[in-house]
């Protein structure tokens, strides 16, 4: 913030019914995923937007008398951007990270309310275990995306 104070995210204020703070490992995971979601969203929209603008500039350049070399460079740039999109797959990463973040936030809220399964003595331990299970599942999905699905075209997120 402009005055130098740190901005507090809503889940950083969550406490258990007994007054315990959200475990630090859970806070770190939530923060990392929050940043990752933002980064993947920006990357996705940037790649898509730049690709559309450059692709649209090819016929515009030709209509305005641009050289064939210019059209070729613009076309090659579009091909490179499309290749980067397939390599990085920011749209898929954005959707997957968003789903994981929402699931982790849900666990934190349920823990804060002291609801089942967080209504016993092991509530904090169970929360950490459940958060780590979500992270492990997302990491497994990421690895699968990087190996099995290389040849499949990316599906764009609906927003």
UniProtKB/TrEMBL annotation:
Q: Keywords, A to Z? A: Membrane, Transmembrane, Transmembrane helix
Under InterPro entries, the record lists:
DUF4231
* Segments passing through the bilayer: 45-64, 70-88
Q: What is this protein called?
A: DUF4231 domain-containing protein
Natural source organism: Catellatospora methionotrophica
């Amino acid at each position: 913030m402009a005055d130098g104070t740190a901005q507090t995210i809503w889940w950083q204020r969550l406490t258990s019914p007994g007054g315990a703070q959200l475990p630090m490992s859970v806070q770190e995971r939530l923060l990392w995923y929050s940043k990752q979601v933002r980064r993947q969203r920006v990357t996705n929209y940037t790649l898509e937007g730049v690709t559309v603008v450059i692709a649209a500039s090819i016929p515009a350049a030709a209509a305005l008398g641009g050289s064939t070399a210019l059209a070729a460079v613009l076309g090659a740039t579009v091909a490179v951007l499309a290749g980067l999109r397939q390599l990085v797959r920011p749209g898929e990463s954005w959707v997957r990270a968003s789903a994981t973040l929402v699931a982790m936030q849900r666990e934190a809220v349920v823990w804060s309310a002291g609801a089942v399964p967080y209504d016993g003595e092991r509530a904090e331990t169970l929360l950490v275990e459940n958060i780590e299970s979500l992270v492990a599942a997302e990491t497994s999905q990421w690895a699968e995306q990087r190996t099995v699905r290389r040849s499949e075209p990316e599906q764009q997120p609906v927003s």
